[in-house]
C-alpha cells in the first residue's frame, strides 16, 4: 500500500509542471502572523514621510517582474564578481526610497519571524499597499514566492520598455510574457503617478509644432513649460517632471484623459493615443475610471504572479540585497 501511495505521489509530482509555483492568500498566517500588520505599518510610515515612495516602488516592482519574474532579483546589489540588474542603465533611475521601504519591511519582519518571508513577497505586497494608499484599486496578492538566485545587468537590454521604442516593440515585450494589448494599456496607467527625468522626453519637446493639429502630440503651452522646466537638465540631470501634471500624486484616470489633450510626457505615452491598436483602450479608460481600476487591478494581480519561483528554484534571502 505504502509503495502504491509513493508511486502515485511521484506520478503526481511529474504531472504538475515544476515552473508553476503555487501561491496562497494566507501563506504566512501560521509562520508570521503579524506579516500583514508589519507590511501595513511600514508602507504607511514610509509613504507619509516620503510621498514619492508609491510611484518609485510600483516602477521597481514592474522592472523586477519583467526581468526573470517577480523574484526580488532587482533588489540584489552588484559585487566584485557580478554587475546586477539594478545597475543596468535603465534601472539607475529607480529611486532609493523604493529600495528603502523594502529594507525597512524586511528588517521588521526578520525581527518578528526570522528566515520566513521572501523579499519578492515583500515587494509585491508593498507595491499593492502603496498603490492603494495613493487612491488606486485594491487587488489580491497571493504569497509564497521565493527569492531568485540570478541578477545580471547583461540580461536587461531589450526586456524592459523604453520611451524610444515603437509601439510594436512595446507590445511585443508584454505579449511575450502573456499580456494582451489591453492589459499593457491598463498597466501603463501607472504613469498616473510619479515623475520622469528630462532626458527621457527632452528630444520630443522641441519639434512639437511640426505635428499636424489633428494628431496633437505635445500641447504647445505644455511643451513650452517643459522646455523651461528642463532648460538646465544637462547641468542638472536630476531635473524631472510629473508624469500626470493634473493630479500627480493621485492614482486616477487623469493620465488617460491627458493623452488626447497633448499632455502626455513620454513619447511612448503619446503613442498609446495615436496607435490604432491602443487608442480604443485609452478612450475607454479616459471615459470610465471604474473600468480602468478593474483592468489595472486584474493586470497587476497577473503581473504579481508572473514567473514566480518556488522550491529549490529560489530561497528566502536573509538580506534583500544579497544572495544567502
Ligand atoms: C509601456 C511602456 C513603458 C515605458 C516606455 C515606461 C517608461 C518609463 C520611464 C522612461 C519613466 C521615467 C523614469 C525616470 O526618469 O526616473 C517611467 C516612470 C514610471 N513608470 Fe513606466 N514605462 C512603461 C510602463 C510602465 C508600467 C507597465 C508600469 C507599472 C505597472 C510603470 C510604472 C512607472 C512609474 C510608477 C513611474 C514613475 C516612477 C517614479 O516616480 O519614481 N511604467 N516609466
UniProtKB/TrEMBL annotation:
Enzyme Commission (EC) number: 1.11.1.7
Higher taxonomy: Eukaryota, Viridiplantae, Streptophyta, Embryophyta, Tracheophyta
Name recorded for this polypeptide: Peroxidase
Catalytic activity: 2 a phenolic donor + H2O2 = 2 a phenolic radical donor + 2 H2O
Domain (Plant heme peroxidase family profile) ranges: 22-324
InterPro entries, A to Z: Haem_peroxidase (IPR002016), Haem_peroxidase_sf (IPR010255), Peroxidase_pln (IPR000823), Peroxidases_AS (IPR019794), Secretory_peroxidase (IPR033905)
Similarity section: Belongs to the peroxidase family. Classical plant (class III) peroxidase subfamily.
Organism per entry: Rhamnella rubrinervis
Keyword Flavoprotein assigned: no
Sites where the protein binds Ca(2+) 2: 192, 244, 247, 252
GO molecular function, one term: lactoperoxidase activity
Catalytic residues in the record: 63
Residues of the site described as Transition state stabilizer: 59
Cofactor note: Binds 2 calcium ions per subunit. Binds 1 heme b (iron(II)-protoporphyrin IX) group per subunit.
Biological-process GO terms, alphabetical: hydrogen peroxide catabolic process; response to oxidative stress
Disulfide bonds: 32-113, 65-70, 119-320, 198-230
PROSITE patterns recorded: PEROXIDASE_2, PEROXIDASE_4
Subcellular location, record wording: Secreted
Pfam families in UniProt: peroxidase
UniProt keyword annotations, A-Z: Calcium, Disulfide bond, Heme, Hydrogen peroxide, Iron, Metal-binding, Oxidoreductase, Peroxidase, Secreted, Signal
Functional description taken from the UniProt entry: Removal of H(2)O(2), oxidation of toxic reductants, biosynthesis and degradation of lignin, suberization, auxin catabolism, response to environmental stresses such as wounding, pathogen attack and oxidative stress. These functions might be dependent on each isozyme/isoform in each plant tissue.
Residues binding Ca(2+) 1: 64, 69, 71, 73, 85
Residue positions binding heme b: 191
GO cellular component: extracellular region
Chief place where the protein resides: secreted
